[in-house]
């Protein structure tokens, strides 16, 4: 993989603070294999856990016999729904998911019971020895059938319906194009499978050592399940290996604590990759119907769409995902009239939830396919058609919300359009050609066609629809060393590095440490939608500025000037006139300074009954041009290059930003070509990394970051925007557009099947 990154002038020259490519503090440990992941945890008197999961996607439980497991040597405890002392159901948004299935099984892999034993093999054998009698029921796996099917849950099958109405329903255009699109089930596929340790406390509480991305929410869920006060449950974040979704499945964490409380011993569980696939949430499979109206010049008049999200068995984040899908259903284009209906429904498929770019990715693939159809019908260049319709600051979303943040969509599109195309294979010796299907593939050069596709994507930042986004941070300074205390979890998004940079920039102190995260600290919220860059970073900045004031006030008073006339740089404090010059260490004079601050963005509001409302704090945009080679006889596809231009607000860490964009683009390529967790009749097929095809470094195309637009969002701390979600959203649509251009086939399903790219002779 190669890239070209445009950054702020001289940013690479900085060694500290905002704008420097400061490496992650844990980079060396992770590279050398010494980083302590959750699966490395150990405790004296440790027991091992295993979970019995349902082999059926839909069944009635008639009996559960645990006696055989309980009598096995080495088994210390078996827990089922009858052993849950508190809330029997949980959920981050809607508490509809049982800790253990009791009467009904609603998806393949749903937990039935859990076992603690003195050896992991014993625990697994004991779980297998539990006898469960099922009355197998017909699963509802087609979300379209969920409307008429018998209720799968007491709350019914419909989770949410949003009928967005904007403009004149009678408006029509001279040119109309229609399409039906399907998006598959992408798994977040975390680098390390879930693992954790539960340790009982002397006060009857429990401590959970897990790789949580939202420890305070996990603590509250666990406390409610265990029937304990929240202060008797502590979550310690341990060894997060990276996350592009909700990192930990609560259905994995909750049985762990129950076993520890019942046995009085530490209990450890390391999930297999199969359990990981069965347990945690996936991207919503989505069915989309679109009709675009345009005038004779290709300017959009009206967009009509129906969007159906398959939530799987439980609600999880489906309501929020649907809101994003409906709100962004027209894309970053000016649309005078829009009528979008969206539904999220329960089925007997595996649960869907938060995965990077949820809702926005699915609609991007559809509306960009519609733009390609419109360009083809009008005989207009696809990039030019998009330029005639792009959104800008001051335009209005179909939700009625005015776009007040920078929206340089046209600039992004022109940047990728004008970037030089990669050389054609005919310009290189035939033996050096990289054909679709790889060097050992069966393809023939004569069957390869090249295509170029464009896509524009958008995402929202932070929570939406009235979510109270708030984070708290403390900055302490003593003996020339600063410490940041904030419960924002480092999931690979770079918050720990950013926190160090903020303190370096504000206080001129080079050595900055970020404390480990646990729930004894004030909450900082979930690590998604770039919220920690904005909200937690903003809290760290405010706390650091308060410490700066404490540091400078005595000096300013002594010299009869205001603190604004003093500056800190490279560990030195100087006045505007040069009269004062001292070091930060000398000014500290052995004192300890500290401050705590909060950051809370401006409030949003829920969408109303017609899909209207100021639901989003901020937006980020991206343009991608994809170049692909397609073997039209075999249907094999090679992504040659992806040119990316992105609206980033401000570059805070050039190297880290480039890595985030490249990773996001690669995840998007996976969604476009290979990643689809297959669930025939609700049963997960091949729940492993052999059957589920993740793109590797060998599959990653050349990624050219051709432009980063630094137009700061004035309401965001540092002016920075979301970095990694929007390229994930945009890349699949660009790849599909390029395959469409190469084959002249409709390409209406992701991931793209080989047969969809075959051109009949």
Structure commentary:
With 761 residues, this protein is α+β, with helices and mostly antiparallel strands. Helix content is 24%, strand content 26%. The strands form seven sheets. The chain has a seven-stranded mixed beta sheet with strand order 3-7-1-14-11-12-13. A hairpin with a 6-residue loop joins strand 4 and strand 5. It starts with 26 loop residues before the first helix and ends in an 11-residue tail after the last strand.
**Helical stretch tally:** 15
Going across the biggest sheet, name each strand in turn: 3-7-1-14-11-12-13
Give the termini distance in whole angstroms.
34 Å
Computed structural class: alpha+beta
So what's the overall shape? globular
Largest sheet: 7 strands, mixed
The overall average pLDDT, rounded, is: 90
Number of strands: 29
Please bin the fraction of helical residues. Answer: 10-25%
Beta fraction: 25-35%
Q: What Rg, in angstroms, do the CA atoms define?
A: 27 Å
Low-pLDDT runs of 5+ residues are 1-12
Question: How would you summarize this macromolecular structure in one to three sentences?
Answer:
The chain is built from 15 helices and 29 strands.
Please describe the topology of this protein.
Blueprint: H1 27-32, E1 47-53, E2 59-65, H2 67-70, E3 75-79, E4 89-90, E5 97-98, E6 104-105, E7 111-117, H3 120-129, E8 131-136, E9 158-166, E10 175-183, E11 195-200, E12 206-210, H4 215-226, E13 233-237, H5 250-263, E14 267-270, H6 273-279, E15 286-294, E16 300-312, H7 318-327, E17 337-346, H8 360-378, H9 382-387, H10 409-418, E18 448-464, E19 471-478, E20 481-486, H11 495-507, E21 512-514, H12 531-559, E22 566-569, E23 572-575, E24 581-583, H13 584-588, E25 593-599, E26 616-631, E27 636-647, H14 654-673, E28 702-709, H15 725-743, E29 749-750
Parallel strand pairs: 1-14, 10-29, 12-13, 16-17, 20-21, 27-28
Antiparallel strand pairs: 1-7, 2-6, 2-8, 3-7, 4-5, 9-17, 10-15, 11-12, 11-14, 15-16, 18-26, 19-20, 19-25, 22-23, 23-24, 26-27
Helix pairs in contact: 4-5, 7-8, 8-15, 11-12, 14-15
């Amino acid at each position: 993989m190669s890239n070209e990154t445009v950054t702020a002038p001289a940013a690479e020259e900085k060694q500290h603070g905002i704008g420097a490519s400061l490496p992650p503090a844990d980079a060396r440990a992770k590279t050398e294999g010494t980083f302590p992941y959750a699966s490395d945890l150990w405790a004296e008197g440790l027991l091992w856990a295993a979970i019995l999961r349902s082999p059926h996607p839909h069944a009635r439980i008639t009996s559960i016999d645990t006696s055989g497991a309980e009598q096995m040597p080495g088994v210390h405890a078996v827990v089922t729904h009858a052993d849950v002392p508190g809330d029997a159901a949980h959920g981050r948004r809607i508490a509809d998911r049982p800790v253990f299935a009791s009467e009904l099984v609603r998806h393949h892999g749903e937990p039935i019971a859990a076992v603690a034993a003195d050896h992991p093999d014993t625990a697994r054998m004991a779980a297998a020895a539990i006898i469960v009698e099922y009355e197998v029921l017909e699963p509802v796996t087609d979300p379209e059938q969920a409307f008429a099917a018998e209720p799968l849950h007491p709350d019914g099958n419909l989770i949410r319906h949003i009928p967005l109405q904007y403009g004149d329903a009678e408006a029509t255009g001279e040119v109309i194009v229609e399409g039906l699109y399907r998006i598959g089930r992408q798994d977040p596929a975390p680098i390390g499978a879930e693992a954790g340790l539960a340790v009982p406390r002397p006060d009857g509480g429990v401590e959970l050592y897990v790789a949580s991305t939202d420890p305070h929410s996990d603590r509250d869920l666990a406390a409610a399940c265990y029937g304990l006060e929240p202060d008797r449950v502590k979550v310690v974040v341990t060894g997060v290996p990276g996350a592009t979704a909700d990192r930990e499945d609560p259905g994995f964490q909750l049985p762990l604590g129950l076993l520890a409380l019942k046995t009085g011993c530490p209990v450890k569980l390391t999930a297999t990759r199969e359990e990981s696939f069965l347990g945690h949430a996936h991207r919503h499979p989505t069915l989309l119907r679109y009709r675009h109206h345009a005038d004779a010049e290709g300017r959009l008049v009206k967009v009509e769409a129906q969007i159906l999200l398959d939530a799987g068995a439980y609600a999880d984040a489906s309501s929020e995902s649907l809101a994003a899908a409906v709100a962004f259903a027209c894309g970053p284009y000016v649309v005078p009239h829009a009528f979008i209906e969206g539904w999220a429904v329960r089925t007997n498929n595996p649960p869907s939830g938060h995965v990077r770019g949820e809702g926005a990715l699915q609609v991007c693939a559809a509306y960009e396919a519609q733009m390609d159809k419109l360009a083809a019908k009008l005989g207009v260049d696809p990039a030019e058609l998009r330029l005639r319709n792009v959104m800008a600051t001051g335009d209005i979303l179909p939700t009625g919300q005015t776009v007040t943040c920078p929206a340089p969509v046209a600039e992004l599109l022109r940047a990728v359009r004008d970037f030089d195309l990669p050389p054609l294979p005919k310009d290189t010796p035939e033996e050096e050609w990289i054909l679709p299907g790889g060097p050992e593939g069966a393809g023939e050069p004569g069957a390869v066609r090249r295509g170029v596709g464009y896509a524009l994507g958008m995402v929202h930042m932070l929570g939406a629809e009235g979510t109270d986004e708030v984070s708290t941070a403390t900055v302490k300074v003593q003996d020339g060393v600063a410490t940041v205390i904030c419960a924002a979890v480092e999931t690979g998004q770079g918050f720990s590095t950013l926190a160090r940079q903020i303190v370096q920039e504000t206080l001129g102190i080079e050595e900055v440490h970020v404390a480990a995260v646990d729930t004894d600290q004030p909450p900082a919220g979930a690590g998604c939608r770039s919220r920690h860059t904005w909200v937690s970073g903003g809290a760290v900045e405010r706390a650091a500025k308060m410490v700066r004031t404490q540091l400078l006030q005595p000096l300013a008073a002594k010299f009869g000037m205001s603190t604004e006339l003093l500056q800190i740089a490279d560990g030195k404090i100087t006045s505007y006139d040069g009269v004062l010059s001292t070091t930060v260490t000398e000014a500290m004079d052995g004192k300890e300074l500290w401050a705590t601050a909060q950051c809370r963005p401006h409030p949003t509001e829920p969408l109303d009954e017609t899909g209207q409302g100021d639901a989003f704090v901020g937006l980020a945009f991206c343009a991608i041009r994809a170049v692909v080679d397609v073997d039209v006889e075999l249907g094999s596809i090679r992504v040659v290059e992806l040119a990316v231009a992105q609206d980033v607000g401000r570059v805070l860490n050039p190297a880290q930003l480039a890595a985030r964009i490249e990773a996001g683009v690669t995840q998007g390529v996976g969604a476009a070509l290979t990643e689809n967790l297959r669930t025939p009749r609700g049963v997960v097929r091949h729940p492993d990394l052999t059957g589920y095809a993740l793109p590797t470094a060998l599959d990653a195309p050349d990624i050219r970051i051709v432009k980063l637009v630094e137009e700061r969002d004035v309401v965001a701390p540092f002016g920075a925007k979301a970095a990694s979600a929007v390229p994930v959203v945009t890349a699949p649509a660009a790849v599909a557009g390029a395959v469409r251009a190469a084959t002249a086939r409709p390409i209406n399903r992701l991931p793209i099947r080989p047969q969809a790219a075959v051109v009949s002779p």
